[in-house]
Amino acid sequence: MLVVAIVLAACAVYAGSLGHEFTYDDEYIIVQNPAVTGAGGIARILTSHYWAGEDVEGSLYRPLTILSYRVQFLLTGLSPWSWHLVNILLHGVVTALVFLVLTRVSGSVPTAAAASILFAVHPIHAEAVVSVVGRAELLAALFLLAAWWWRASLAVALPLFLCAMLSKESAIVLPALLVLGDRLGACADGAERPTLLQSLRLVWPFFALALVFAALHFALTSSFDGAAVGPFAAVSAGRRVATALDVTRRYLGLLFWPATLSADYSFDQIPILAAVHPLALAGAAVVAACLAAALAVRSRAPAVACGTAMFFVALLPAGNFLFPTGVVMAERLLYLPSAFFCLVVAAAIEWLVRHWRVTRGRTLIACCATAAILGTPLAARSVVRTADWADPLTLFATTVKTSPRSAMAWFGLGHALQKRGDVDAALDAYRRSLAIAPFRSGTHFNLGRLHEKAGRIDAAIASYEEAIRLDPSYQQALNNLGILHQDAGRLEQAETYYRRAIESGVERSEPAYNLATVLEARGNAAEAMQWYRAATRIEPGHVMAFNNLGRLLLVAGQTDDAIAALESALAARPDARLPRVNLAAAWYAKGDIARAEALVVGVLQDYPDDQNALRMLQAIRGR
């Protein structure tokens, strides 16, 4: 019953998210991700990186997480409440596994119960639970802890460990945690603690599987980190580690006092420090003090020593100590490490309870009651923090207050305001973002879209040109520049931009279709047909590409091919007007007057004033 109560508490504090929208990266990783909402099935998922929805190169490989999104999309569509419900339930399951694993690690049910209570309600988990894409953290923790619990059966534990790594790469840390548990955790009654060599022998299958996964990951992404494009791309190892020490100090501060939380700590909210900097030294002092304290109490409070060591080890994969990642700091990265922080606090609670000479039979009650007292304000903070994630506008309006130096936060606010139609406020937010990070091509692109919508075409062109100056392969900016030049009658410039967009390396139907329309307007029908065909190959349901291809084929006298193309257009959209009129013309040219007339009459029933259909009907009946 105790575990059930803790799980219910874990779910209750985040239940407010059931009415929330998709926010932040949910849009890119789920809503716009063809591996989730498109066709291609399991093969596409297994061969796509995590950010495939953004059409960028990616160094993250999390196919099991993407598969969970795909399965849920097929079952529930894009109804946000169902996605949030799954995350809440996953957090409940993880909380139960935290209790089981920490019972084994600490050798104490009271300690594990207190730690689980704190873990269940801690507001540092809001991002991982309330943001749908936080599911990567939830799944990785769930499978890692399950593998830990069933480690005695390799046939069960190794597949679970693989699932953990396929959910998120940071789960690769499990073998090290197992060794720490063997060396520092509780031993079964009468059992002898294994030596380091014995522990390594017990854990070697996990290390071997981790190496296999690392090799697979590297083969598919050519990387295991975000060094190429992340905040540490051009930063020395000394500066990176210095910054990581400062961030670790900040993490510990948030775990102890989560009063001010933020959805984004990217450039320039967390400064990249010099190799020798007071903040780095302060971080090093905090880490050293934690480790020294753990070592000092190792014999008297082994759970404290074990939890401390596990916290820092669990933080290593995403902590920027061993290698650079694409993130300086993020609260979601504390989801698994926080379990070991809670273990340390809970072990201290049990020590105090025993110091107060509470009878052994009442230790569990006293520990749980103390954890509940500490957890009540944490739970209240979680409820309040959950409300901050209600929708993109609410989230980023809050984030620019907590992270005013984050260019991404101001960009997100601008994007949310732009979608709401508040042009002036969005313009101000984008300008604030560019004042912090003028090198962000995406911000210039969005600013260009804003100018374009407001009719400021020259300003839009200037913003798009700045975007492609910063990123010459920015396909959407190149395509939009082509559209603006085409609308202004500058067909040669439009053709140039469309060709550059196509050459950017990302295969999309829009620039191919747009190039075809320009080529047709410039009298190059033969090449135009090639690009219309390319557009239909990329997007098999592209109605206008099939329509225009059919129309040109008809003009070229290729009536049968024209009919095939136009029927493909109608297969994608049976009520489309232009393909029906053009198909009527094709059947008329082929001599099938009855089919032609039936199509035209059908169009006029839906669109009585369609001049093309009226002329076609007049030609048929005046024949």
Topology of this protein?
Layout: H1 2-12, H2 26-31, H3 34-37, H4 41-46, H5 63-76, H6 80-106, H7 109-121, H8 126-130, H9 135-149, H10 154-167, H11 174-184, H12 196-221, H13 237-256, H14 278-296, H15 302-315, H16 337-355, H17 363-388, H18 392-402, H19 407-420, H20 423-436, H21 441-453, H22 457-470, H23 475-487, H24 491-502, H25 509-521, H26 525-538, H27 543-555, H28 559-572, H29 577-590, H30 593-606, H31 611-621
Helix pairs in contact: 1-6, 1-7, 5-10, 6-7, 6-9, 7-16, 7-17, 9-10, 10-12, 11-12, 11-15, 13-14, 14-15, 15-16, 16-17, 18-19, 19-20, 20-21, 21-22, 22-23, 23-24, 23-25, 24-25, 25-26, 26-27, 27-28, 27-29, 28-29, 29-30, 29-31, 30-31
Written overview of the protein:
This protein is an all-alpha fold and 623 residues long. The protein folds into 3 domains: 2-388, no CATH class; 439-539, Tetratricopeptide repeat domain (Serine Threonine Protein Phosphatase 5, Tetratricopeptide repeat); 541-623, Tetratricopeptide repeat domain (Serine Threonine Protein Phosphatase 5, Tetratricopeptide repeat), CATH 1.25.40. Helices cover 70% and strands 0% of the residues. It is built from 31 helices and no strands. The protein has helices at residues 2-12, 26-31, 34-37, 41-46, 63-76, 80-106, 109-121, 126-130, 135-149, 154-167, 174-184, 196-221, 237-256, 278-296, 302-315, 337-355, 363-388, 392-402, 407-420, 423-436, 441-453, 457-470, 475-487, 491-502, 509-521, 525-538, 543-555, 559-572, 577-590, 593-606, 611-621. It is elongated and about 105 Å long. The N and C termini lie far apart (85 Å). The model has no long low-confidence stretch (mean pLDDT 92).
